[in-house]
Amino acid sequence: MVAAVAHRGDPYRHRENTLPSLTGAVLAGADAVEMDVRLTRDGVPVILHDPTLKRLWGHRNTALVDVPADRLPAGIPRLHEALAATKGARALLDLTEVPSVAPVLAAVRDAGARDRTYYCGEAAAMLAVRDRDQGAEIALTWKTSAPPPPLLLDEVRPRWINPHFGLVTPALVGWAHGGGLLVAAWTADTRRTMRRLRRLGVDSITTNRIGVLCDLLSGPPASPTPSPAPGARRR
């Protein structure tokens, strides 16, 4: 079964990373909702992708790190609000742009959401999560065709390898599954790409079009693309 992950909620219907977008994704059938976490000037975790408030909120030249939480524009949710809004699904928190993971992990704990929350991001952020929470579920974001080095995998101990959809090949899926890892691919927005990833045997697909993905996954799967045997040499 392939998990359907909603990228920033349901951004084709609602403004991304807002409560309507997050709840809309759950109502559309998402198994998990991915959201971007950043910190305000006073260290409060909020949900926002961009470093500034310009694109989504119209505040020119205003960086989030310069704004205290009590001066945020209405509509930018705090992390605890986002976790409450996605209670019917899992929460995938992207921590790529978080300078300290401690406030995020504390907010997740205080919200009683630890059992349904997992984390994605590049190596530095995921190492910080592992250092503070030995039991955290981690999806290690990866952006090259070569697999992560064994030492990094030993230190991060991810459950998932999280590559861009264009990097997913039968060899990568075979390597991951052979090593006991699940494969989460991002961000697939066309039916053609979703079908290809499903054939390749990925375990999770992240998309901006969660309704389309859920509809596709409700149908019969196509014949899977054979994966090489564990340990097979990659060309």
Report on this structure:
Helix content is 31%, strand content 18%. With 235 residues, it is of the alpha/beta class. The protein has a single domain (3-217), classed as Phosphatidylinositol (PI) phosphodiesterase (TIM Barrel, Alpha-Beta Barrel). The protein has an eight-stranded parallel β-barrel with strand order 1-2-4-5-6-7-8-9, surrounded by six helices. The chain is globular, with a radius of gyration of 18 Å. It starts with a strand and ends in an 18-residue tail after the last helix. Mean pLDDT is 94; it is low at 228-235.
| Largest sheet report | 8 strands, parallel, barrel
Q: Which CATH class is shown?
A: Alpha Beta
Report strand %.
15-25%
Q: Based on CA inertia axes, which overall geometry fits?
A: globular
Termini Cα gap: 28 Å
Order of helices and strands: EHEEHHEHEHEHEHEHEH
* Radius of gyration, CA atoms, in whole angstroms: 18 Å
Number of domains in the coordinates? 1
Helix content class: 25-40%
Q: Low-confidence parts, pLDDT < 50 over ≥5 residues?
A: 228-235
CATH superfamily: Phosphatidylinositol (PI) phosphodiesterase
What is the count of DSSP helices, taking H or I runs of 4+ residues? 9
Summing up helix and strand content along with how strands pair, one would put the structural category as: alpha/beta
Strand segment count: 9
Q: What is the average per-residue confidence, as pLDDT, rounded to a whole number?
A: 94
